[in-house]
Amino acid sequence: xxxxxxxxxxxxxxxxxxxxxxxxxxxxxxxxxxxxxxxxxxxxxxxxxxxxxxxxxxxxxxxxxxxxxxxxxxxxxxxxxxxxxxxxxxxxxxxxxxxxxxxxxxxxxxxxxxxxxxxxxxxxxxxxxxxxxxxxxxxxxxxxxxxxxxxxxxxxxxxxxxxxxxxxxxxxxxxxxxxxxxxxxxxxxxxxxxxxxxxxxxxxxxxxxxxxxxxxxxxxxxxxxxxxxxxxxxxxxxxxxxxxxxxxxxxxxxxxxxxxxxxxxxxxxxxxxxxxxxxxxxxxxxxxxxxxxxxxxxxxxxxxxxxxxxxxxxxxxxxxxxxxxxxxxxxxxxxxx
Length: 337
Hints:
45% helix; D-Maltodextrin-Binding Protein, domain 2; two-stranded parallel sheet
């Protein structure tokens, strides 16, 4: 073999050796990445901000069934109810587990409104994980109530704003409260004269309604529609931009009744402060797969939920924007601290 051919052969050998080394490094890096990717190694707590039967409790139980049926999460997953303080009890409990991806709260706008009103931690003290969906608010009364429409409610309030009692879950300024208050405000009524009674969950408020202790309860359309199917309530208005389908197709919007009010409740998953990027990425992926599952899509449709999935970074930006809107509303009520 001549010198030139020897050099070529040596070059090919060196190139092959270099390729083997590069491949080995890549495989080692992939293996290290796979080993460092976080996943739960003990039971997971999905924390409801209200008592059993409330909004976040009901949603989490639906989610857990899908997660476990489809084996999206290998560890056991359970709902843990932490009602009280207008949801602040749940968020305080969450932050007792800093940096721990085994704890998540099903959050709603009360995460913002509580802190603005001087109760509970700020959303900036937690880790936004994903935004899931939003649901409009329905205003309910007993089937035998003399309040037969949204217009009736406004008329009664004009005659005597203290004669009607409202069952609010779980705090003033939150979407359930706004579902009625925004319409009354649009009608020119003084919101500070509303007679509000605070409950730990929509279920508790509805129990008081059915027992004749409260006159009006604004709750999520999903919960309200289930009560309507059972003949337990009359829905006098929905705070949606247009009529909703199915069993709610005959329920007029606030706008149809002369009050320009559109109010929705959003749902997010938040974790404790100091969660790692790997923990957040794990839950982003799990929730993305759940959102794509047919059984979850069926739940969205049957509960009149509007999917609005966002990852952690987008969720954080959304919370910052909505926090400013919530501040303005609570300031108007004289509740902002």
